[in-house]
Design a protein that fits this description.
Blueprint: H1 9-12, H2 16-34, E1 38-39, H3 46-50, H4 53-59, H5 66-73, H6 83-89, H7 91-103, E2 107-110, E3 115-118, H8 131-148, H9 152-159
Antiparallel strand pairs: 1-3, 2-3
Helix pairs in contact: 2-7, 2-8, 4-8
Length: 163
């Protein structure tokens, strides 16, 4: 009997190259809202959220309004309280993704302010038309936009994270 192997694209795409693209999109969107970089620790939120099918399915279609963020945070089907643990478990791939982003110069690190800055002189074309990859990119963009409208303390409070 022939066995059919089903591949979960969300799992397959969980690699540092895709991660660097997601963190770049997140940082770029945040920068477009705030006109300044995002504090480095907040970048560790991106991959646990964007790489999660449940979170991405919830977020990628939402509007850029803060009300949509609040509705997502109030969705009881998602376990937002687990975000700090997920950030810890994704820390290695986040570090690898950041390393790729820095070495390819799509992101810069502002040591003085401890912020990630997108390189405005570079862009990454959306070459993939994969549906799940597109969801992840849209999730990262929306998350960057939402967080760009908040103060650092509000981000920590809403997402129940501490540094």
């Amino acid at each position: 009997m022939r066995q059919i192997l089903e591949i979960d694209e969300f799992i397959l795409l969980q690699n540092p190259i895709v991660g660097s693209h997601l963190i770049y999109q997140f940082t770029k969107e945040y920068y477009s809202v705030k006109n300044r970089g995002i504090k480095l620790p907040f970048s560790f939120m991106v991959l646990p959220i964007a790489f999660s099918k449940d979170f991405s399915d919830e977020i990628y279609r939402k509007s850029y309004k803060l009300g949509s963020m609040i509705k997502s945070l109030n969705n009881n089907a998602l376990n937002w309280d687990s975000l700090p643990l997920k950030m810890k478990s994704f820390s290695e791939i986040t570090f690898q993704s950041l390393n790729i982003a820095f070495s390819t110069s799509i992101l810069f690190y502002d040591k003085e302010n401890a912020e990630l800055i997108p390189n405005s002189g570079k862009s990454i074309p959306d070459s993939s038309k994969k549906q799940d990859y597109d969801k992840m990119l849209k999730t990262a963009r929306r998350l960057g936009h939402w967080l760009g409208n908040l103060e650092d303390e509000e981000i920590c409070s809403y997402y129940n994270i501490t540094f």
